[in-house]
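Notebook entry, cofactor series.
This is the third protein in the set we're modelling with a bound small molecule. For this one the ligand is adenosine-5'-diphosphate. I'm keeping the input format identical across the series so the outputs can be compared line by line later. Sequence and SMILES below, as received.
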Amino acid sequence: MQVSQPASATERQQPILSIRGLCTEFATPAGVLRAVQDLSLDVMPGECVGIVGESGSGKSVSFASVMGLIKPPGRVAAGEIVFAGMDLRKLSTQDMRAVRGKRMAMTMQDALTALNPSMTVEQQLLEVILAHDEDIVQSARWGKNAKAYKRAVEMLELVGIPSAAKRLRDYPHQFSGGMRQRIMIAIALACKPDLLIADEPTTALDVTIQAQVLELIGSLRRELGMSMVLITHDLSVVAEQCDRVVVMYAGQVVESGPTSEIIGQALHPYTRGLLAATPRVEDLAMPVRPIAGTVPSLINFPRQCHFYSRCQQRADACLSEIALSEPDVWRQVRCIRSEKERCA
Ligand SMILES: Nc1ncnc2c1ncn2[C@@H]1O[C@H](COP(=O)(O)OP(=O)(O)O)[C@@H](O)[C@H]1O
Ligand SMILES: [Mg+2]
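Returned structure with ligand:
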C-alpha cells in the first residue's frame, strides 16, 4: 500500500496574492494623506477574503494600489505586491496592463461612472474579449468576429441578464443599478481572471438585489475556481461569502482572521463596534448601535492608536504607536487590550 507523504514546505500552496508593507499616500494642499499604512495580507488560491471597514478606511485605495491604478498626486510609497509569482511594482506599464486585463480584474464601487456611458455593453465587452483572448483575436483578424460576439452573449447570460443578445446593444444608462453591477462583473470576468477584486459590489443596491448579486458572485467564484477579494463596509456581507476577514480602520489593518472568529470572537473594539452596528438577520428586533464619532483625517495623524478618539476602552498607553499583535498573517489584532482579553 502506498502511503502518501506529508507535503513538504516547498509543496505547500503559495498565495495567489501577497501584499507586504504596502503604504499609499496622496499629496494634498494640507499635507500628505497616508491612506494606506503598512498593509500586509495574503490571498490563497480559491479563497475569498473580505475587506471590511467604514468609508475612508483605505479599502479601495489598497486594491487600486494592487491593480496599479494609483495616479498622481497619489503614489505607492512602499511595499511589495506579489501576484502569481510576479513582483507587480517592478513590472513595466505594458506588462502591468496585461496582468490587469488577463489575470486580475476589479469591479468598481460605482458602476455608472466605471462603465463608459457612450459605448454599448457589446462594445465594452468586445473590447475586453478582443484585448485578452488570443484565439478570438486571431479569428477576428480573419473577419470572423462571431466567436467574440458569442462570448459576449455568454458573459451576459452568465451574470443573469435576460434577453442577453438583444440587450448587448443597449447603453449602461438603459440598465437598472443591479443590472449595471452585473454588467461590470461580466466585463471583469470576460478576461477569466485568477483573482477578482469586487469593490462594494452591492452598496448602491436595494436589499433584494444585493442578495441576488452576492449569490451570483459566490456561485461564479465556486464555478470558475477564482480567488476573490470582497470589499465592503457591511460585515453581514462578508459573513455570507468570505473565508477570512481583514478589518481596516483609518488606513490600517486593525484585525484579521477566519470569518467565524471575527464574528464570534472579535478582539478589537472597532470590530466589536462594527458588529454592534450591523443588523442581525436572526434578530431584527435587536437595536443596532452605530459607532459614535467619525473616521479621523489621515493628514498629519499622530503615531497612536487610530481608533483612540472613538474607543470606549482607551488608555494612556494607546497614545503611542500600536503594532499588530502577531507576525502571523492569519489572526492579528492591533490593540493593547487584546492579549488580556484573549486569556480571559
Ligand atoms: N485621489 C485621491 N486624492 C486624495 N485623497 C484620496 C484620493 N483617493 C482616496 N483618498 C483618501 O484616501 C483615504 C482612503 O480612501 P478609500 O480607500 O477610498 O476608502 P474606503 O474605500 O475604505 O472608503 C480617504 O481619506 C480618502 O479621502
Ligand atoms: Mg471604497
